[in-house]
């Protein structure tokens, strides 16, 4: 991506006069789309309308034409592969930044979906990342504080890692197997009864094509749009995802509402190409922080954040930090998500910790992103909810699971 195009992209995202032009963003390439998707989460400093508009890039990107679809299938597969299907629908049922999905029926009768990579993005994406990295380093040279507070290089590295993983659909298979094996190992120690995984047809899948079970349900994104997502279901997503984050430390790296399908009473993890891992220090420290925050124990929150840092602060520096943290949370207790954003508070808290001298692992961003997804779902589906109070119901179960699994 040329630097001038990068500047134009940010002007689109940060415009206060009109919503970003999604067609323009898509024409700039995969990196531009991934950056815009990342900013769709940033309700801490973008308005809700802009974030909601950018979030369309998760599941509603421009699909390729039918003839191009046939050409790619021939390129990615062979006649033997095609002979396995009795029918393949040319019109996609979903299109995202990297791939799109078509319904199909196997000759053996199973209803499946075929996901395939739209085109060879890799070389241009890697070239754009190198260009943007140089641009960021140029900016940081003149404004070094940006590196500590916003960590743009770390965020770019995260975008690069999970996008390159997405571009090889074999990762979606292997990462799905990792998440499923965690489920199988611990399902008797933690209530994961509502979590399911689609069947993958590995013999029909490769780097560019993935064939999996058709799940006759709706994405959480669609349910939220239709105002048909009960709050108890949103909490269950936190309950399941929280287990992977707080107890295991290995979790779905991109669990946005478009990557969850609800069928009946069950939730299916899909698009598991990106998987994230965090060290025990962050994993346990974040759980401690969220536990203290749930009961508005702000002194405990201050200590927990310091415990999360691999470079902690002490003495007068800590005292100044603590006073400012109380100021950040002075309007938080008892407020609904529509009144005070958890994401905004979390980002302000991390920023304050960094400005006070704390240093965190780069593994922070995937977890913060997960918290952003949850906050966004609650804001969209149950804006009058006091989320921190509702989260209390899971804390004892998380504690028991931690004791059973990690101690």
Structure at a glance:
It comes from Paracholeplasma vituli. Keywords: Kinase, Transferase. The chain is an alpha+beta fold.
Terminus-to-terminus distance? 48 Å
Q: Calculate the mean pLDDT score and round it.
A: 86
Task: Please state the overall shape, judged from the principal axes of the Cα atoms.
Answer: globular
Count of DSSP strands: 11
Radius of gyration: 22 Å
Low-confidence stretches: none
Order of helices and strands: HHHHHHEEEEHHHHEEEHHEEEEHHHHHHH
Report the β-strand fraction as a percent range. 5-15%
Pfam family, one: ABC1
GO molecular function: kinase activity
InterPro entries: ABC1_dom, Kinase-like_dom_sf, UbiB_kinase
Family: Belongs to the protein kinase superfamily. ADCK protein kinase family.
Question: Which secondary structure elements does this structure contain, and how are they paired or packed?
Answer:
Blueprint: H1 3-14, H2 22-27, H3 30-39, H4 48-54, H5 66-76, H6 79-82, E1 85-88, E2 94-95, E3 99-106, E4 111-117, H7 122-142, H8 145-149, H9 152-166, H10 169-186, E5 195-196, E6 209-213, E7 218-219, H11 220-225, H12 231-248, E8 250-252, E9 260-263, E10 266-269, E11 275-277, H13 280-294, H14 298-308, H15 315-328, H16 342-355, H17 364-381, H18 387-391, H19 395-406
Parallel strand pairs: 5-10
Antiparallel strand pairs: 1-3, 2-3, 3-4, 4-6, 7-9, 8-11, 9-10
Helix pairs in contact: 3-9, 7-9, 12-13, 12-17, 12-19, 13-14, 15-16, 16-17
